Each structure stands twice: as structure tokens, then as C-alpha cells.
Amino acid sequence: xxxxxxxxxxxxxxxxxxxxxxxxxAVSGTAPAPLSILDLATVGEGYSPAExxxxxxxxxxxxxxxxxxxxxxxxxxxxxxxASSTPAVLLAHLGAHTRTLRLGSGGVMLPNHAPLAIAxxxxxxxxxxxxxxxxxxxxxxxxxxxxxxxxxxxxxxxADDFPQQLAELTHFLDGDFPDxxxxxxxxxxxxxxxxxxxxxLGSSGFSAQLAGRLGLPFAFAHHFSAANxxxxxxxxxxxxxxxxxxxxxxxLIGVSAVAADDEAQARRLARSAGLAMLRLRxxxxxLIPTPAEAEAYPYSPAExxxxxxxxxxxxxxxxxxxxxxxxxxxxxxxxxxxxxxxHIHGHEARHRSYGLIAKAYGLAAEV
Length: 367
What we know:
The protein is an alpha/beta fold. The protein has one domain (3-361): Luciferase-like domain (TIM Barrel, Alpha-Beta Barrel). The protein has helices spanning 49-66, 87-96, 115-128, 145-152, 162-174, 205-214, 229-239, 263-281, 291-296, 301-311, 319-333, 347-361; strands at 35-39, 70-73, 102-109, 133-138, 198-202, 218-220, 251-259, 315-317, 337-341. Strands 1-2-3-4-5-6-7-9 form an eight-stranded parallel β-barrel, surrounded by eight helices. The two termini are 36 Å apart. One of its GO terms (molecular function) is oxidoreductase activity, acting on paired donors, with incorporation or reduction of molecular oxygen. Residues 1-25 are annotated as: Disordered. It comes from Kitasatospora atroaurantiaca. Pfam families: Bac_luciferase (PF00296).
């Protein structure tokens, strides 16, 4: 990425370029900081994957209208409740149904792929939707080990190989392998005038430190590793070295959030996501259960403790309570941007929750 990539993009251009700086974003309405969405195209009980993907498309269109800055989707495999297994395919579709919303991967699990393949996929996305695409990268498989082996087929590359894979991917994107490198004569095509900004994602200190050393923006998964948020962000900032991408650190955190008419209703909705997470943690992932199923489930004492602990890290309640909770979290962590995510059952409830949050947080006057 060149220094030109750091300049704000012009608004409302016919080719669909983003309205603001691709990394730093901009504050919409009266919001105190950029607010974004992480969506997994969740599939709930009683719904099909096709219906889930349609709902995600409608949510992206609404998110653009409401003033959310980014809309990211994430790579997961072997999970019936998640339809976003292939981010590049879904992002191409979402780009065709939006005009200015930044789209990205939150993230692509790089160890599952050859770096050249990801460079080609996101080069194609950049050509389709210039100036609107983020390439967020993770080093976990996003699935169980058996599925990871089935995805890779060749010699396994794990998390420890991530820095080398990242360097190779960056060279493919920039077309600047050094002379004598085995891949120096290879090109990732198509390639447009620019290329997607790379973000590193993580839930521990490894990616935080690597992002800092490389001068890249960093996204931390607060929504499933809340205890590590502040230490990881501190490590990122202390490790940061200015680069052609950033002069100073830029940190985003993912936050589980649910808004409804009142706290009781929001908690009831959130419990469906909590039960889905419980089942995932014990190795039996499934569709997102209904709130009624989550209420009736016979939790053991250990399971009840897990659910209570998980819910404690969800910002939930009436819209104003959620907005206040998000702002308190932003101030406590010093995050530059918040990315809310909600895996609750029911597309209407999820869509409404994001709309209520947008209005209460100051992104949009009406939803």
C-alpha cells in the first residue's frame, strides 16, 4: 500500500468508492466514533441458509442507509448455524447490493489458503468494488482440526507459519517479490490501481504484537476474549511502528450487542446466542436455537455458569442502555472503532437490534 492509499476517498463517486478514509473511517451523525457490523449470515432454527443469506444482504443495505462504517463477514467451516463459509463470494454479492459501505473479511483464516489464492480473490473484489474492500486476516483455522486438514489437503501450515504467509500474501498483492525469489515472476491477477488494506485479527497477544510491528490496523475479538482486550491493545500500541499504512495505531474491537424494547427482552434474545456458543464450545455446533428453546434448556451448573459469564460480556438492553454501554467500553479500551455483532435467533429481531443501536448511538436520526 502506498501513502496515497491513506488519503480520504471522494464521496459518492459512480464507481462506488467509499465515503471516507478506508482505515480510520469517519463519524456519522452524532456518533462518538465509527460503528461497524460483523455478520456471520447466521442460520437459526426454522430458517434455511438461503434465507439467512438474503437476510444478511438486506442487513448490509440497511447498515449502509443507517450510517454503519464497515460490514464484515467471517470465515467459519463445519458450523450449521453459520452460512459465511466463503467470505470472498459473499462480499462480491454484498458489494453488488450496496454502493458506499465498506466491506471486508473479519476474517479470512489465512492458514486455510494459499496466499496467492487470497491475493487473487481480493484483487478481484477490489476490481469489482474499488476502494471499498478490507482484507482482515486471522491465523486460526475457524473450525476443528479434521476440517482444517480437509481444507488444506497439502502439508499443514499452522498459526506459527502465519508471519511468513502474511509476507507472501503482501508481496503478491503489491507485486514486489525481490529478485531471485521463487515467486518473483508470478502475478496475482486481476490487479487494479489499488489494493485492499490488510487488517490483522486476533484474540491474544500474537497478532496484536505482529500488527504493531508491521504498522497495520488491528481488530480484537472482545466478543469472545474480553479478559484479553486491554492487555492485547496495550501490546499493540507499545509494539507499533509507523508505516506507509498508518502513522499511529488504529484498533477496532468486536463487541456482542443486542438491543430491544427493554433489558428483559434483549437478554431473552441474547440467551439464544449464548446457548449456540455453549454448544459450539462443547463440540456440537448447530443452528441458532430459538429464545424459547434457550429458556427451556436444562442447564447444568457448569453450563449455567458459562452462560452467565458469556452474557456478562454482551452489551444488551434498551437502545439507550446499549449506546451508553458501547461508549463506556470504547472509553475503557481506547478503541478507535467498535464493530458490533449479534448472533441472535430471528432475522427480524436481529435487523431491528442493529437499527435501534444505530439510532441510539447517533448514526441515524431514523431507522
